Amino acid sequence: MEVCEICTEEVTKDEMLAMPCGHQFCLDCWRGFAEVTLERGPTCVATTCPQAGCNEIVTEEEISVASPHLLPSFNNYQLRSFVDMNDLTRWCPGPGCTRIAIMRGGGVADSIQVPVECTSCSTEFCLKCGEEPHSPTNCLELARWNEKCKNESETANWILANTKPCPRCSSRIEKNQGCNHMACQQCKNEFCWICLGNWADHGANTGGYYKCNKYDPSGDSTTDNSDAAKAKRELDRYLHYYKRYHAHSEAQKFAKRQLRDTEAKMVLLQESTDNSTWTDVEFLKAATEQLVECRRVLKYTYSYAYYMTDISKKMHKERFEHHQEMLERFTENLSELSEQPIADMDRTDVVNQTRVVDLFLRNILQYVEDGMEED
Ligand SMILES: [Zn+2]
Ligand SMILES: [Zn+2]
Ligand SMILES: [Zn+2]
Ligand SMILES: [Zn+2]
Ligand SMILES: [Zn+2]
Ligand SMILES: [Zn+2]
């Protein structure tokens, strides 16, 4: 006969359960202990031996003998704690998804992001930080940027109302499409939603100086060095980047809706063209998928550029802005093409533009990667 340390009853060896630390208790006491342990919820995985002062962790070994019916939920808590504690694993952020992503291999510490796609719900996310893929901005900058945007949101929202007056005739214009090329119903003025500048200065055909994506501080009274003036300059600088970040974010949402509608559109297009097959109309889906990706990357080129404050990298910044400008220009182009009525759509044109845009997308991401290696 053995004596249980908790209830001091004498029981047979079979009715005792010992921990690896040597402390043993009767099964009755263990059952009660297991109940209480599980009631603690997620922290139950850190429960220690019932013996006061003993730090041996209670594991599934004891739970499975004492209270087998509690084992599944105990295992669940173990898994959750493993994922939460471990930098190399992450829950899929997809709504209702319970998949876990696990990082393989090293060398990810200083990568910009670790993009993965969930095999169950197809959600794309960064394994390092759990946000959507965000290159060229890295995880740390993204966290800072999101924090910044949270703090400035009231100011920014006030400025970014959803309608704007036409820069020529002042009639209110609502933006309801993805592309930033606006046309006023009243006076037919064509302008850029973001800077309100003439659209002709933005076109790919003009070859004119396109500076919509670059922050130009010359508009400020830079000689004024009072704290208030400095704060205003900093806010203006932030808003320059935020406006564009926000516009691409909205356009990304628009493109995602477009993608959902595309399947329906594809059926229409297929029916309207004689002898066409499904693959003949898939170009439209490819174009829209390309748009979603470009908008996402463009969005994060602005959070990236916001943090490019190192004067010694002026050249780097100028080249970056050039890549950004090209990607932006051709994305607007493709955006416009894809919003056309099906009847007006030129397949070859859309296919070509999709390919061109993809090239500019690879270019800017490659440029940032290479730049990191040079540092
Ligand atoms: Zn006992
Ligand atoms: Zn113990
Ligand atoms: Zn998922
Ligand atoms: Zn990340
Ligand atoms: Zn107008
Ligand atoms: Zn503009």
From TrEMBL:
<dbReference type="InterPro" id="IPR013083">
    <property type="entry name" value="Znf_RING/FYVE/PHD"/>
</dbReference>
<dbReference type="GO" id="GO:0061630">
    <property type="term" value="F:ubiquitin protein ligase activity"/>
</dbReference>
<dbReference type="Pfam" id="PF00097">
    <property type="entry name" value="zf-C3HC4"/>
</dbReference>
<dbReference type="InterPro" id="IPR018957">
    <property type="entry name" value="Znf_C3HC4_RING-type"/>
</dbReference>
<dbReference type="GO" id="GO:0008270">
    <property type="term" value="F:zinc ion binding"/>
</dbReference>
<dbReference type="GO" id="GO:0016567">
    <property type="term" value="P:protein ubiquitination"/>
</dbReference>
<protein>
    <recommendedName>
        <fullName>RBR-type E3 ubiquitin transferase</fullName>
        <ecNumber>2.3.2.31</ecNumber>
    </recommendedName>
</protein>
<dbReference type="Pfam" id="PF01485">
    <property type="entry name" value="IBR"/>
</dbReference>
<dbReference type="InterPro" id="IPR045840">
    <property type="entry name" value="Ariadne"/>
</dbReference>
<dbReference type="Pfam" id="PF19422">
    <property type="entry name" value="Ariadne"/>
</dbReference>
<dbReference type="InterPro" id="IPR044066">
    <property type="entry name" value="TRIAD_supradom"/>
</dbReference>
<dbReference type="Pfam" id="PF22191">
    <property type="entry name" value="IBR_1"/>
</dbReference>
<keyword id="KW-0833">Ubl conjugation pathway</keyword>
<keyword id="KW-0677">Repeat</keyword>
<dbReference type="InterPro" id="IPR002867">
    <property type="entry name" value="IBR_dom"/>
</dbReference>
<dbReference type="InterPro" id="IPR001841">
    <property type="entry name" value="Znf_RING"/>
</dbReference>
<keyword id="KW-0862">Zinc</keyword>
<keyword id="KW-0863">Zinc-finger</keyword>
<feature type="domain" description="RING-type">
    <location>
        <begin position="4"/>
        <end position="50"/>
    </location>
</feature>
<feature type="domain" description="RING-type">
    <location>
        <begin position="1"/>
        <end position="216"/>
    </location>
</feature>
<dbReference type="InterPro" id="IPR031127">
    <property type="entry name" value="E3_UB_ligase_RBR"/>
</dbReference>
<keyword id="KW-0808">Transferase</keyword>
<keyword id="KW-0479">Metal-binding</keyword>
